[in-house]
Amino acid sequence: MTTLDIAAMSGLELMRWVQTERPTGIPTIGRLLGMRFDEVEHGRIVVSLDTRPDFANPLGTVHGGIAATLLDSAMGCAVHTTLPARVGYTTLELKVNYIRAAQTDGRTLTAEGTVIHVGRRTAAAEGRVTDEKGKLVAHATTTCLIINSED
């Protein structure tokens, strides 16, 4: 398949394509932050990134928006892996709990998103961000709206 066929891919096929091809010519938040798709399964995604000084908040640690973006991406993409071709999603609600600060010195943050439920119109997922030592940095839940191309 070529990049022109992505509309015909199921969510799982698309996420696996992103994982293996790592398309660099397509502008995405993942490319901007340096996200890697480490694991892609039906209903589950693991993404990671290496922190950097650009991610700092005024206190010098990783801004909470970085963890929230990792969580939103992991959970949303996990939902996407359950959807057929030409069916999309968007985040309706994101609830994040921050547990500890992360450093901006190149440490790896890993987010795992797992689907809880996929219905006809909405889906729910949960996620966790951990640091290199496996310590919990943040956890979250999301509700996504399922968007059919005929809607």
From TrEMBL:
Occurrences of domain Thioesterase (ranges): 60-138
Protein name as catalogued: Uncharacterized protein (TIGR00369 family)
Keywords from the named record: Hydrolase
Keyword Transferase: no
Taxonomic lineage: Bacteria, Bacillati, Actinomycetota, Actinomycetes, Pseudonocardiales
Classification via InterPro entries: HotDog_dom_sf, PAAI_dom, Thioestr_dom
Keyword Hydrolase: yes
